[in-house]
Amino acid sequence: MSDLSGIVKAYDIRGVVGEQLDADVVRDFGAAFALLIKPDSPSVVVGHDMRESSPGLARAFADGVTSQGLDVVSIGLASTDMLYFASGSLNMPGAMFTASHNPAKYNGIKLCRSGAAPVGQDSGLAEIRDTVEQGVPPFAGQPGTVTERDVLADYAAYLRELVDLSASRPLKVVVDAGNGMGGHTVPKVFERLPIEIVPLYFELDGNFPNHEANPLDPANLVDVQAKVREVGADAGLAFDGDADRCFVVDENGDPVPPSAVTALVAVRELRKEPGGTIIHNLITSKAVPEIVAEHGGKPVRTRVGHSFIKEKMAETGAIFGGEHSAHYYFRDFWRADTGMLAALHVLAALGEHDGTLSDLTAEFTRYAASGEINSTVDDQVARMLAVKDAFAGRSGVVIDELDGLTVDLDEAGWFNLRPSNTEPLLRLNIEAPTEARVTALADEVLAIVRG
Prior knowledge:
Blueprint: E1 13-16, H1 23-37, E2 43-48, H2 54-66, E3 71-77, H3 80-90, E4 94-97, E5 106-113, E6 117-118, H4 125-134, E7 146-148, H5 152-162, E8 171-176, H6 182-189, E9 195-200, H7 222-231, E10 235-239, E11 246-249, E12 255-256, H8 258-272, E13 277-281, H9 287-294, E14 298-302, H10 306-316, E15 320-322, E16 328-330, E17 336-337, H11 339-351, H12 357-362, E18 368-369, E19 373-376, H13 380-392, E20 398-400, E21 405-408, E22 414-419, E23 425-432, H14 435-449
Helix pairs in contact: 1-2, 1-4, 8-9, 8-11
């Protein structure tokens, strides 16, 4: 088979359906995954999102798994965190068919071992790719079987057990599902809670007719922001296509930074386990480790990416972890990421609070930030080296290269410059005491990056 490195990414498999991904190659991925996990499990749980290609690809993958003698439990339509729930609660390896926030022509596979443990390049994906490229060896034994199982109600009940909203005052919340899997999971999760949901785009449609299901792009928050203001809601939630990420907007329609959500949830988790460890990636606000320490917790900094977060959580026994991209990880959820659980925490905190969401989150937002600024460059390494050289000799500057290039200018702010894994881009994130300082630092760094 041809080189598959173009679709086997750092954390998942992803490509254009019909060009890079079809039933035949997905069947081989299923067989290769079965070979990888066969020593540890006799069964695999498989779920899929609402994209038109997803059911067929999920069936092809199941065919590959069963061709190697393993059984498949199909949970059908699912969010990615619902698949993680199934993997954790059933103690089975899992496969989720989704391309998350990518456009309709894409699809992909997120894989995990039993207990929702991550499968990335260094933990199985490269081995799976090699097996498919070299040709999956045939299996002479009895093929496995496929059974169907609905876990939506169990998933919803489990989340409600983890966050108590019984003392919450009534809230009105706008939810933008972006025609993604949030439209399937939100109604069940919020069943019987003291929350009035105002739904936007709950119809499952993998063509995304209203806007891209990528709330990281501010353009895709416009509708939820406008609806919150229109109906006088207490808050708004926006989910990505596979509903594992959740963005929050306050009663004014203003986005609540994911770092503020990380700090808020961390404080709540530390109440349950005083002195616990909280993971934050190196692009989250400096406010996160400050607030964690102020509340008696142990902040631990890590690289960007769910594999690194989950590994560090396992290593440290961390109770919670958060990323700048609105991925939130919970020890009580098999160290997997679930935006839904983070959303419930935010709403529980708001429901116990007399004021507004903007009042509640103000204490967790201490600095100005740029958000992610992307630059297309011909030579990522050379541009990063040029930035490093420009700042290295300055007084008080601390540079580290844990993940890309992080330059700490002490009280004047900090920035991180990272290469994209999949595109010829450099991603710049800046934080400083004031907006003016953020702008000045952005101008300075981008002048070097963009030449």
